[in-house]
Structures are given as C-alpha cells and as structure tokens.
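Hey, quick one: can you model this chain's 3D structure?
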Amino acid sequence: MTTTLIADRDHKIDAIEQLETRLLWLSSWMIHNANHLRPKRDGLKVGGHQASCASMTTIMAALYFHALRPQDKVAVKPHAGPVLHAIHYLLGQQTRERMERFRGLAGVQSYPSRTKDAIPVDFSTGSVGLGVAVTAFSSLVQDYLIAHGQLREEDAGRMIALMGDAELDEGNIYECLIEGYKHDLRNCWWVVDYNRQSLDATTADRMFRRFDDIFETCGWRVVTLKYGKLQRAAFGRRGGRALEEWIDNCPNAEFAALTYQGGSAWRQRLEADIGGKSHVKALLDSYDDDALARLMTNLGGHCVETLMDAFDAADDDRPTLFIAYTVKGHGLPLAGHKDNHSGMMNPAQIEQLRASLKIDPGAEWEPWGGMGDNAAAQLRAFVEDSPLARKAAEPAAPAVPVPARFAVPDGAEQSTQAAFGRILLDLAKSGEAIGDRIVTTAPDVTQTTNLGGFVNQRGLFRRQELADVFQKAKIPSAQKWAAHAAGQHVELGIAENNFFLMLTSLGLSAPHFGTRLLPVGTVYDPFVARGLDALNYGCYSDSRFLLIGTPSGLTLAAEGGAHQSINTPLIGMGQPGLTCFEPAYADEVALMMRWAFDTMQRPDGSSVYLRLSTRSIAQVERADDHWEADALRGGYWLREPGPGADAAIVFTGVVAPEALAAWEALADDIAGLGLLNITSPDLLHRDWSAARAARWNKAPAAPSHAERLLSALAPGAGLVTVIDGSPAALSWLGGVRGMRVSPLGTDRFGQTGDLPDLYRAYRLDSDAIIDAAAELFLND
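Sure thing. Here's the predicted structure for all 780 residues.
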C-alpha cells in the first residue's frame, strides 16, 4: 500500500514538473510573439514580464494542479498573468487567438481582469497590493455568509493571493493585516514569490526576517520555503553545512548576479569563499557546471515537492504566509539579471529555449508541443482530471426584491445625510427581504455618518458574540450596538483602503459565493480620495455597492479645509463603474437610494455614489411626482423657465436654498428665469457624451437629457452654475447648446468659520449668484 501511494505521489510530482515547463514556455512565447512577431502598427513596445512569469511557474503549477480545490479563489500576481492564461489554455478554457493578441484589442489583458478577460478570473489584479489585500476581505465576507446561514461551512474555500515580494512594501498590506487580526481572519493564504528583485533593484537583505515577526504578531502562520529538495540533499552531505551557511549569508544582489553568470561563476566564487573548508571542494567537484547552477538555484519556490509538502501541511483555517524563495527569470537566459523585470528574450534566445524543449518550428502554440504522443496524452488526462477542471462557473445569484418606493422621512427641514440614515433604518425595520441583505460598513465614522440607527436595529457583525459593556452596566448611550454573528454592520478602523476593499468584497458576493448582498458604505466625503485607488479597483472589478460620501463640501464649515471636499464631484463624474448623484432634498435621497439598490443588481448596472450633507434645509412642496424621472436622468426644472428665457440658475445639492433665494430675487427682473436642479452631473454628462458619440458614428440617437432641458431656453442664454464643489462639475453645460456660463463653486482649500461667512468668502451665497447673473448681461 505504501509503495502505491509513493508511486502515485511521484507520478504527480513528475506531471506537475512537466506542466511547469509547459507554463514557462507558453507564457514566454505569448510575450515574445506580441513583441517580436506580431506586426506593430504604432511602433511601440508591447511589453510583458517573462522573468516575472518564470519565477512563478513552479508555484502556480503546484498550487493549481495539486493544492487548489474548486471552492478556492486566487488573486494572481499581476505580472504573472500570462501564466494564468497558459493554465486555462491547457484546460481548454483559453483560445490561441486571444493569446496571440496578448495586450491587443480583444486579446489577453496585460493583467488578470474579471471583466475583460474571457477566462475565469477570481480577482482582478494590477494595482499593486490591492489584489493581495482583497483576498483577506473576501474571506471575511465568506465568514459573514456562513454566519448568516447563506453558505455552508463545508463549502468554505481559501482566499489565496500570489504576490511579488516587492508588494510587501505596499502600506495597504499592513493596514489589511491589522483589520484581519481584529476580525479573526481565517481561510486565507498569501504566497510570496520571494525573488528579491523589484522593478528597480534587488530587495533589502535584512527585510525577510522581519516579515515573520509582523505576520506572526497578527496571528498568521509563516512558512518559509528557502531550499529545494536538491539543496537539502546536498546540505546533508559532507561539506554541505558550509554550503548552507554560505547561501544563508549571501547578499541578494550577489546571489542574483551569480545566477545570471552561471555554473562556472558559482564554482569560482564558492571555491574562493569556502573551498578551503572540510569536504567542500569534493562536494563542489561532484557537480559539473550545469548541475552546480541547478543546485544553487534549486530554491524552495522552484521545487514542486517542497511546495506540495508545504501546501499539504497547512490543512487548517489559520491564515498562512508562504515565503517561497525563487529566482526571477528561473529557467530563462534572463535569470538573475537586475534588468530582467522589463527585459525579454531576443529571437536567438527564444529559439534556443524552443530547441531545448524539443518543440518543432511552427508548433510553438501547441499545448503539448515537444512531448511524445503517450506522454502528452497522460499529461492531458492529468489536467482534465484535476479539481481545477471541475470548478463550476460563477453562480448567478437571484436578485433581491426592491420595494417600488422608499418612504420619504417627515420634516419641514432636513439634511440629506439625516434622510439617508432614516431611510436605511426604515428598511431595517420593514420586514422586507432587502433589509436582511443590506450590509453596512464604515471606517470608524459610523455614528457621524448616520448609520447608528441601522446598527442599533441590526447589530454589529462578529463571529464571536461581544457584549456591550456600557449597556451591561446600564450606562445610558445612544449606541446599542450588540455584536454577534447575525449582525449586519462591519465596523472598520480608519483606513480608507480597507474600507473600499471591504465594499469591493461585499459587492462581489453574488458572483463569488452565489448570495447577493447589498453593501452600503459611508465615509467622510473628502476622504474618498484617501482610498481612491481601492475605489477604482472595486469599480474595475465590477463590484456593486452604494457609497455614501458625507458630510461634503465647504458646508462642513467649522471642520476647516482638511475636512471640506472640493473635487469629489469630478471623481464621481470620472470614475467608470460608478454612478454619482448629489441630492438636495430628502425625497430625492429616497428616490436615488431606491434606484441604487435596483441598479446595483442589474447586469448592466454599476455601483452608486451619493454625495450628501449635514446641512439641514427647508424641503420643497411637490405638486406631483413628474419630476422623478428627470431627476434620475440627471436633472429637472425646479422652476420652469418662461418661453424663450434668456437665463437660468443651475445648482447642485446643498446650495439649493441660496439658488432658490437668488431666483426669487431675480425673477421679476429677468423674464422667465429658470431654476434647474442638477441631481447628477455624472449622468447628465455621460448621456450628452453618448449622444455626441452616436452622431459621430452616424448612429440614430435622440437628443441628450441636457439638450432637452436646455432647449427650453433661448439660444445664447446665460447660465449661472453653482455647486459646493469644483465649478468644473457644472460649467461644461455651456457647451451643450453654446450658452454663456458664469460658474460658481469652490476651487481652493477652505478654512474654519460659520456657514454665512464661508459662503460669502467663497462666493456660494445668494448675493454671489445675483452678481454672477448680472455679469452675464453686463458682458452683452
């Protein structure tokens, strides 16, 4: 029985080693083809990272064809994307045509992409470090679903990140570690391709010892895979101890240089340094130059057996960091060279590699090229029988029903932030299915962004129940935040990268786990910019969430310039995969939240961003609901212009009272003056751009919503635009129909003060709007 098991394991090791060679070749050839063989119409380098792929091929072969289970998910090191595509090519899930168009239109993407690649991609990667940290938050989401009875414990998978060692310089890695520790992270593996070379240089020699301390302090198991099987065997021979000590003390840069120089250089250096020690010379002489080079580069990350043993040993749910020593460019003539990050093999070198692998000219794209028919058939069968080949497609989660209307909070005066909190609380109390699927999160601003009511009603999420000490002691508090497994709020520390990665992971619960969640995250609006890279990452991954930026703008008066957002309306307009609204009134908030929860679930939908305010303003009376459709298209007339009107005041959001006061002051002097409420500069601009593009492409297109709105004014009419944010968010409206614009907004860092002072100083008050209207006519 033992003999059979060993034979099976030996067969598996041999098969994975053969697969490693296939992945090395196919990834290298894909990049070579794009840069040296495919016609270049623009003359630019296509790029690719042959050396970065080569350092990962053994790790990925062992992981994907030995350790990976169907429920596991992997974020692949961005520069190793071609290896991932080569894996799916062997599985029959990638086409030669797409690989031939690597980094070309409709071809394999530069870095793994959930939305743009044709193969299954669990996590988009590319922005350094974010594709690593997101796996930790996805593991937390998995625990949330298990705790809520929406995923079986036995179906839990490992969330795995394959990362370059240079990514360990990224600050968001360590922010994530801290958050993971607070939430008792489990079922997470991070595998470090420790090739000790970054884009510009070799990495610092002293750092690898610190990673153990940092990760172990945060509850991780650290497994260091430094030596391969050949090296360990050599260390057990006479003279081997001295060789092991020499390797341990060799600086990274020198190890890389010797690797590039090859066997004779290794021999010369080793004989000079330790050749006089007992038995070392005889040990070195037992290897020819090629064998000595193989021995010295037989690091743990290039040894299939070592990797398999390490993966098998981590058979519990403890988060684990594997530090796998590798050589950048392993198996290629680029191995070890300090310039190999962006370098690639020249035609002569790729030809030499092809010949060494016995691949016939013209058979470079053959999945099993260079192998005999029997060997190819056996390896193909091995791949087809792997757990990876049986991995199901991502599930299609059913939609969560959204009520036809959300109730509008009562109150003659309200802020949009308060209205948001009350609507969310109503949903929590409603008994509707939507209340059970909403998950809220915030980076330590839960109370000050009006999430407190929802959390009081639904509780904090903790896998282990946590008592509220103040409540237990009967100390009065508005916070009644019970922490338990059924809780629906994930409280985070004040790190916006973590916040947006948490939203990303929650928003991918439908495709990842087959259960749709409706994530709602709140953050101070100026601090959207702190996590902008992670927000962009989430949108690029097509994650779906509702982002609440509040409080916003100069209106956050007394907090000063550090807490007053300026350019977030432009972020909302410019961010793909995110639809931005800025409501002025409570009924607009209700309308837009309802639209958001529906849109988040549509195949062609998006995430949604509401820019809100703490300023309480008088609400308007509505004659009917005819304004709603236009509000959801980006804007509506709060006061209709008269026929052929020469001017309009155009506003967005919290400056509604100033705009309305200015309109009332000017209405008698400017005949037919209109008052236009822009609820979404984003949608309005997007629709206008799409209409123009349709005309350019000679496709039929109706006028854009902006054109329809402004057509009520006379040609050449003047617009006064006003927003508590960058004036550029609205000033473009003048270009829709060739109208004059006098734009008001904030384009400077604010200061402390009360609202009247700041509105006057930064020209957001009604007097400024009246002056701007006068300027339009004085310029005639």
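One thing worth noting: The chain has 33 helices and 20 strands.
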